Amino acid sequence: MTTWSELPKLPPSSTPRPQEVTWATEARLLLALICGWLTFGLGMLFSASLAEGIKEHGNAFFFIIRQLGFAGLGIGLMVMISKTSVDRLFTYARLSFVPLLLAVFLVRVPNIGSQLNGASRWIQFYGISIQPSELIKPCLLLIGAFLFARWRFLNFQMRIYGLASILLTIAGIAIQPDLGTSVLLFLVLLLMAIISSNIRLAWIFSTTLAVAALAVLKIGSTPYQSKRITAFTNPWENAQSLSFQLIQSQVAVSNGSLWGTGFGLSVQKVGFLPYSYSDFIFAVISEEFGLIGSVIFILFLLSFLIVGLRVAVRCADPIRRLLAAGSTFLLVGQSFLHIAVVIGAVPPKGIPLPLVSYGGSGLIASLVCCGLLIRSAREMYAPVTQLRVAEPSVPKFRRRRRSSNLSRNTQVELRKIL
Q1: Which residues, other chains included, contact 66 with Cβ-Cβ below 8 Å and sequence gap of 6+?
Q2: Angstrom distance (rounded) from CA 45 to CA 356
Q3: I need a labelling partner for 1 at 20 to 30 A (CA). Which of 48, 198, 302, 413 fits?
Q4: Which of 143, 144, 150, 138 has the alpha carbon at shortest distance from 10?
Q5: 252: Cα separation from own chain's centroid
Q6: Is residue 45 helix, strand or coil?
């Protein structure tokens, strides 16, 4: 059976030399933006979770204390990743991919997976909820970057194996069911494949059509997802049931008006808006900081997108380029998808806001993706990997030497005459 270890090995000369791994201006700017994003997120989580912490756990600081612990672990991983070469990170991704993929499917097994609101996305481990679909995101980015960048250097079997691994992961997340995360991952990897310019458009188009058809069938066969779509089209018909979250979220956004109610003074988070500290935390941001604060946050996301894409454009090696682009698209794309859910532009989905919403697995995965982006920025000047294009294996036959009827002495005499 073909494994990822059979990918073409990087030649020793492709390993970045010390002078090629630097804290470039983009890397420093990204680090500053990430620190600012995380600090703002912790502050907003503190504000949004106070009432829920008192109501559910009798401790106003319950959520923020746990989130600070997860943030410390995530920051440590981000620092380690920013100091580790991308080639070695790919090795770690290969080793952790299979266990995480098994965990993605194990959440559907009774007595192993934890179910909430009709979805099985978590595994309980010593009182801590682990969400494999979040933790596998950085692995998919690394595997996708190496696969699409080396596409022309792989044989047909390795291409099928790589695509099957990615699509199997997305399918496993979709059946939890978590259609929002699966669609987001597919779109990010699709953009990475297009940017690589190594894959034929026929492959991309056919895969997209197949995944879209499966998504439609999945929505039609899942009752609560089809009901959500129906409720989204006319939310006021289900104001007290399926559309309650969406309507309360829109009320919070409208309460913010232009300048907002002020930090910590949101009304909707106090018993009106469910999951105000996770899936709908942007509604609290809009209510407390108003339209001005919401626009500033969106401009911040656009600034992060510009810096991340600048890193991708300046990377000499295609692997680093795709990794930087994928990490940027995932973080910013998930943020805009969360905002779209809050304002009612798309049907409700359980999509957290990166570095802001409560959740240990999501926060750690987001910080790991930030580490991948910073490392790509530090290796912008790494040399381009030189690999041979894969050729179909052709059996080699030994050429038979033609026997001559003339004796050796006769051949020598003929050469003298000629």
Answers
A1: 358, 360
A2: 6
A3: 198
A4: 150
A5: 29
A6: helix
For the segment 84-115, what is each residue's pLDDT rounded down to a tens digit?
999 999 999 999 999 999 999 999 888 888 87
Positions in the chain whose pLDDT score sits under 50: 1-2, 4-5, 7-13, 18-19, 387-404, 414, 418
Give the span between the Cα atoms of 39 and 272, in whole angstroms.
26
Bridge partner residues of 123 (DSSP): 113, 130
pLDDT at 418: 46
Residues 37 and 33: their CA atoms lie apart, in Å, by: 6
Taking the CA atoms of the chain, what radius of gyration do you get in angstroms?
Answer: 27
CB contact set of 174 (below 8 Å; sequence gap of 6+) = 182, 214, 215, 218
Buried b (16+ CB within 10 A) or exposed e, 107-144: beeeeebeeeeebbbbbeeeeeebbbbbbbbbbbbbbb
For residue 390, the model assigns a pLDDT of 46
Q: Tell me the HSE value of 380 on the side-chain side, using a 13 A CA sphere.
A: 18
Instruction: Give the whole-angstrom CA distance, residue 162 versus residue 4.
Output: 8
Cβ-contact 314, 321 below 8 angstroms: no
Residue type at 372? L
Q: Which residue has the tokens 């682990």?
A: 130
Alpha helix positions (H), 197-241: 201-221, 223-233
Q: Looking up tokens 């982006």, which residue turns up?
A: 373
Strand (E) or helix (H) holding 129: strand 128-130
* φ, ψ of residue 37 in degrees (nearest 5): -60, -45
Sign of the alpha-carbon torsion through 123, 128, 129, 130: negative
Question: How many C-beta neighbours within 10 Å does residue 290 have?
Answer: 19
Q: How far is CA 84 from CA 160, 378, 392, in A?
A: 29, 10, 35
In what order do the strands lie in the sheet containing 113-116? 113-116, 119-125, 128-130
Dump pLDDT digits (tens) for 16-27: 554 467 888 999
Q: Which residues contact 223 (CB under 8 A, 6 or more apart)?
A: none
